[in-house]
Amino acid sequence: MPKKTKDVFKPKRNNRFSRLRGMKDVLFDEYKYWDLIIRKASDLADFYGFQRMEVPILEKLNLYERSTGRDTDIVSKEMYSFIDKSGDKIALRPEATPGIARAYIEHGLFNKPQPVKTFWLGPLFRHEKPQSGRSRQHSQFNFDIYGEDSPVADAQLILIAYNFYKELQIGVQVQINSIGCKECRDEYIQKLTDFYKERGKRSKLCVDCKKRFLKNPLRLLDCKEKDCIEVREEAPQIVDSLCDACREHFIKVLEYLDELDVPYNLNPFLVRGLDYYNRTVFEIIPFEEEAEDENIFLRQSSLGGGGRYDGLIEILGGRPTPACGFGLGIERTILKIKEKNIPLNKEEKNFIFLAQLGDQARRKMFILFEEMRRSGYQVRQAFTKDSLKAQLEESNRIGAKYSLILGQKELLDGTIIVRDMESGTQEVIDYKKIYSDIDKRLEAGKEEKN
Ligand SMILES: [Zn+2]
Ligand SMILES: [Zn+2]
């Protein structure tokens, strides 16, 4: 007799939804990576005294125009923005710092003992070009310090970012530069502009850089186009133009990093594309790529970065407040963990799986499950399944240590079967002795390990 094929539900193609381009779903197993990263970041936040906070995903559009900068790629090209039903111009946050800074002012956090140290984690949205292979939603976590101008703060943040990767066993290097303050930077930009004005230089630049030359010449330094990189080789370096105060600040930061044994690389072309940065800027680069091609891949492969933004709070209407911080990409970090097969060191859980055969047994196990769960046991079940085979398969799949099996016979005898899932051995025990038996076994397992 021909086997009857199962009816498989096939949705009609044109009746089906798929996720938006550049957006990703995060399913089940993927969360072990998220858990690891969130745990590590939270631990560091606790150690160094950063307090968790969250701000809304939506903010007023002009918050980003005024802080991140109207002419930056993020705001001018990549931001998701719209007019809401009340006619307000709204943006989905393309980066975290402006929202956190807005909250610092709005909640009067400047009245608290300074510095205020914040830990933030959440999604960001940028309408990136699809061919770039980048996601339009990605997540990041940020550490920021408000109300502290000492170079110790810069160094501590860099140390935290470095420790985060070191403790995950991901080799990274810190790229660091100083872009000075308003005064010394203006002087430098004049020098830089003069340099690019020299004969034949501007014509070699890419279309974007020709625009940057007029709008934001500093950004000529971090273009990734080959020709632009060639031209900039001879460009004057900003560290040579720093004023005394900026130079001293930068040297102190580097001295702390030396003392803390944080490896770094001075990168004179690192400027970070946002308007609010001053003095220290840095990026975290995976170690190997750095060796392969110094120039071209540096920025693309960055795992995150940050710097000082002493003017931001004032720009947003607060009182002058020095500040600095960094953000690290969660998905990019997960990619690295996968690439390097880094063990997740998940704490071992002693799952106890409850299996049953027959309706009456199921009812009894239902109750036992709740009892054991409330008593703190790591119980698991598949009560919707009837077949014992299917239940034990599930028990195997989740890596349960023991299964408790209740069938018709055991129900009548007042007993229950304990199955050691690793060895496959089974033992019939008195139903009333479940707890003492399981405790004994778990205890013996612990001693074996020690
Ligand atoms: Zn300066
Ligand atoms: Zn260019």
Q: Can you characterise this structure?
A:
With 450 residues, the chain is an alpha+beta fold. It folds into two domains: 28-181 and 243-339, 2-Layer Sandwich (BirA Bifunctional Protein, domain 2), CATH 3.30.930.10; 351-445, Anticodon-binding domain (Rossmann fold). It has 16 helices and 16 strands. The strands form three sheets. It has an eight-stranded mixed beta sheet with strand order 1-5-6-11-10-9-7-8, sandwiched between helices. Strands 13-12-14-15-16 form a five-stranded mixed beta sheet. It has a three-stranded antiparallel beta sheet with strand order 2-4-3. A hairpin with a 5-residue loop joins strand 15 and strand 16.
Task: Throw out a few tags for this protein.
450 residues; alpha+beta; BirA Bifunctional Protein, domain 2; Rossmann fold; 16 helices; 39% helix; binds zinc ion
